Amino acid sequence: MIYPTFMVRNKFKPLAIAAIILCLLSCSLVITAQTAVPNKREFRGAWIQCVNGQFQGLSTSEMQQNLLHQLNVLQAEGANAIIFQVRPECDALYQSAIEPWSKFLTGRQGQAPSPYWDPLQWMINECHKRGMELHAWINPYRAKTKTTTQLAANHIAVQHPEYTFQYDGLLILNPAYKECRDHICTVAADIVQRYDVDGLHIDDYFYPYPVAGKPLPDTQQYQYYATHCQGTPMTIGDWRRENVNTFIRQLAATIKQVKPWVKFGVSPFGIYRNKQSAPNGSNTRGTQNYDDLYADCLKWADEGWTDYLVPQIYWQIGHKSADYDTLIRWWNDYTSNRPLFIGEDIERTVQYKDLANPSQDQMQAKFNLHSQLPNVKGTVLWYSRVAVDNLGNYGSRLQQIYWRTPALQPLMPFIDKKKPGKVKKLKCLEIDGDQVLFWTAPKGDNWKEQAVKYVVYRFDKGDKIDTDNPEKIVCITPNTFYKLPKQATVEKKQKYTYIVTALNRLQNESSGAKVKVKVK
């Protein structure tokens, strides 16, 4: 490090010198954040929810335009996955013979959209065109939100009210009942079977969030279990956790039985357990997955039932009860058996100042933590609209710094580690004044061998051919062609080497085919 000359000529008190060094280190961190190459493999997701009512009152064309705008901006910002809410209260934002159309789509539960369309299928098409994954997000147990006053005749709570209980204005499918688990798994199997989703995602609503003075109304079911079980009965807490564990295990098996490549992800509440509750808990004080929601999400990852976890660490660095720095390090230490993505709250990130540099918000500090922790493999933004609206220049910084290069999905060898074959017959042809790369898909006898996307790399003359460098990626596409850019973006008559690789469903990457092209 080169120090300013005034530091050499003058004598400074130790505190003053320390302050200057801290300032220089902060500048260095800014430069590092802007120049470091992002990871080649990283989950870059955003949640698009419907329960905030953003689509109610919109016509079909208006909702499509709304979603197109969000997808286009998120793509430009570097996102490669969308988590789209399709089942908020045992209803559907897709064509279903099992559950009614959602009121969050049409304004009235059970009423089909007019003009007719299927939002899930439409989103799959639009995301895949952009090289993005689409994960269908369902709320498993919630049967009615507080704002819903009318349920459709074919709603499960109308047909089987005995499967539900009321709690603080909500209607909940009782996790103790096998019939409820079976119903949710039937819904999930239907989605996975009929739609080309890349993932099936559930959020943090298991047993409902506790409200002071309001016990859960499941004592009768617990007493029945305790009376009829063999041996010493579990405590009521362990019994509730086992109910949820049984469901998660069943849902995971259901998904893999239908389509083994579809990823199963969960986004639990940001605190697993507090240290005061368990030695392995985090140094926090707040609602707990394990003790309050009866969600043993670490067990799900350790047992391999889930394919990824996205803890919702929505607080700021320095929060007194749930410090972001403490929590992200805790999840990194305790979630090593499955990829860990971090649920980021954009509003809190830009609202609070960096503790080490109060002249800026906490985005850089949080992304620095992401890069430092080896088990953190991605980010999911809460929520998409805030990123699209570029609150606090968050979206601009994604595009210019943190997500500025394309990214493939993290590897999941526990699902599949087989690579597809190499693309064939790669060549460059001139068509109507355009230079276009064409290739043929490799042969594949099953889903592990079949190519579904392709990565196109471009290397300048003299460059080292290194497909681990994401700065050389010019396109990730489902097509078997790529139109080369005009002279405005590449040097005329320059020779470039293009490499094309194939990706299978899990984005395992083949070896590359190579062609040299002189730009005309």
Characterization of the model:
This protein has 520 residues and is an alpha/beta fold. The protein contains 16 helices and 18 strands. It has helices at residues 5-9, 14-35, 60-77, 103-106, 119-129, 156-159, 178-194, 219-228, 236-258, 289-293, 297-302, 324-334, 346-351, 363-372, 384-388, 394-402, and strands at residues 43-48, 81-87, 133-138, 142-144, 164-167, 170-173, 199-202, 263-266, 308-309, 340-345, 376-382, 424-431, 434-440, 453-460, 473-477, 481-483, 495-503, 513-518. The protein has an 8-stranded parallel sheet. Strand 1 (43-48), helix 3 (60-77) and strand 2 form a beta-alpha-beta unit. Helix 3 (60-77) packs parallel to helix 5 (119-129) and helix 7 runs parallel beside helix 9. The chain is globular, with a radius of gyration of 25 Å. The two termini are 45 Å apart.
Which tags fit this structure?
single chain; alpha/beta; four-stranded antiparallel sheet
Fold blueprint:
Blueprint: H1 5-9, H2 14-35, E1 43-48, H3 60-77, E2 81-87, H4 103-106, H5 119-129, E3 133-138, E4 142-144, H6 156-159, E5 164-167, E6 170-173, H7 178-194, E7 199-202, H8 219-228, H9 236-258, E8 263-266, H10 289-293, H11 297-302, E9 308-309, H12 324-334, E10 340-345, H13 346-351, H14 363-372, E11 376-382, H15 384-388, H16 394-402, E12 424-431, E13 434-440, E14 453-460, E15 473-477, E16 481-483, E17 495-503, E18 513-518
Parallel strand pairs: 1-2, 1-11, 2-3, 3-7, 7-8, 8-9, 10-11
Antiparallel strand pairs: 4-6, 5-6, 12-13, 13-16, 14-15, 14-17, 17-18
Helix pairs in contact: 3-5, 7-9
